[in-house]
C-alpha cells in the first residue's frame, strides 16, 4: 500500500506529534520530521506532501531578527496555504499560519500555561473540535493573533479569543496543545521550558498533577478529533 505523506516541521525536539502520531499512521500517513537546524529543514516543495504539520515552539512567530529562518518558514507556509492542501498548525504553527495569511501575531500580555477547557463557537461545535468539548486542553503560549481574513473562529478561552481557526475544510490552526503526550514524556516539556515556567511563576507540581489528572481524557478526545479531521480533508 502506498502511504500518504505527512511532512512535520518541528522547532524543539520534545514538542513532537505526541498522541497525534498513532492516528496519523492509522490513517495511512508516513511521517517525516524536518527539524530546525538540519540542513534540509525547509528544503522541500510546499505543495508536495499530502499533509503539512507545523508544530509549536517557544519563540514568537514575528521574531525574524532573532531567528532568521522564520522568514523562509513563513514563505513556505504561505505557499502551502495558497495550494489549499491539508495543513495543520499547533501553537507556534497556528501563529505562523495566521501570519502567512496576512494576520497580525503579537504578545497577548499574559502567559496562558495550564489546563482549561475551550469554548467552541457555533461552527466549532459541528467541526471535528466537537470531540474536545468540555475536556481541559493544555495551553502553553504568551502570544495571540488576529483572525485571518477568510478564516472561521472555532474556539476561545476566557483569556484569549483566538484558540482555533479553520480555512475551508483542509486548513486548521490550533493555539492549544491537544497533541501533548501527558504520560512520562511530559516531563520533557517541564524541563525544556523550565526558564519560561520560572519566569511566569507557574506551579510546576500543580501542572504535573493536572497533566496526570487530565491526560487520559485529553488523549482520547484528541485522537477522536484528529481522526475525524483527517477523514474530511482532501488532498486534491
Topology diagram in text:
Elements: E1 4-10, H1 21-26, E2 29-35, E3 51-54, H2 69-83, E4 87-90, H3 92-100, E5 105-116, E6 119-120, E7 137-145, E8 152-156, E9 164-167, E10 171-174, H4 187-192, H5 194-199, H6 204-232
Helix pairs in contact: 2-3
The low-pLDDT segments are none
Portion of residues in helices? 25-40%
What integer is the average pLDDT? Answer: 96
Distance between the termini: 19 Å
Silhouette: globular
Structural class: alpha/beta
- Give the count of helical stretches: 6
Task: Offer a quick outline of the entry.
The chain has 236 residues and is α/β, with parallel strands linked by helices. It has 6 helices and 10 strands, in the order βαββαβαββββββααα.
Describe it.
The chain is α/β, with parallel strands linked by helices and 236 residues long. Strands 2-1-3-4-10-9-8-6 form an eight-stranded mixed beta sheet. The protein has helices at residues 21-26, 69-83, 92-100, 187-192, 194-199, 204-232; strands at residues 4-10, 29-35, 51-54, 87-90, 105-116, 119-120, 137-145, 152-156, 164-167, 171-174.
Could you name the key traits of this structure?
236 residues, alpha/beta, 10 strands, single chain, two-stranded antiparallel ribbon, 30% helix, 8-stranded mixed β-sheet
Amino acid at each position: 500500500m502506498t502511504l500518504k505523506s505527512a511532512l512535520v516541521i518541528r522547532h524543539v525536539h520534545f514538542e513532537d506529534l505526541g498522541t497525534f502520531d498513532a492516528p496519523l499512521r492509522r490513517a495511512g500517513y508516513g511521517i517525516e520530521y524536518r527539524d530546525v537546524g538540519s540542513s534540509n529543514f525547509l528544503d522541500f516543495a510546499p505543495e508536495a506532501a499530502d499533509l503539512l504539520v507545523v508544530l509549536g515552539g517557544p519563540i514568537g512567530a514575528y521574531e525574524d531578527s532573532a531567528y532568521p529562518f522564520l522568514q523562509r518558514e513563513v514563505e513556505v507556509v504561505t505557499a502551502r496555504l495558497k495550494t489549499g492542501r491539508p495543513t495543520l498548525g499547533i501553537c507556534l504553527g497556528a501563529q505562523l499560519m495566521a501570519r502567512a495569511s496576512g494576520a497580525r501575531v503579537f504578545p497577548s500580555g499574559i502567559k496562558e500555561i495550564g489546563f482549561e477547557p475551550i469554548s467552541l463557537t457555533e461552527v466549532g461545535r459541528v467541526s471535528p473540535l466537537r470531540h474536545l468539548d468540555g475536556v481541559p486542553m493544555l495551553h502553553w503560549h504568551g502570544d495571540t493573533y488576529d483572525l485571518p481574513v477568510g478564516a472561521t473562529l472555532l474556539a476561545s478561552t476566557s483569556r484569549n479569543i483566538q484558540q482555533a481557526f479553520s480555512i475551508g475544510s483542509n486548513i486548521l490552526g490550533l493555539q492549544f496543545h491537544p497533541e501533548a503526550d501527558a504520560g512520562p514524556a511530559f516531563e520533557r516539556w517541564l524541563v525544556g521550558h523550565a526558564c519560561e515556567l520560572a519566569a511566569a511563576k507557574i506551579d510546576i507540581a500543580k501542572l504535573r498533577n493536572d497533566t496526570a489528572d487530565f491526560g487520559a481524557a485529553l488523549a482520547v478526545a484528541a485522537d477522536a478529533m484528529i481522526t475525524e479531521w483527517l477523514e474530511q480533508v482532501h488532498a486534491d
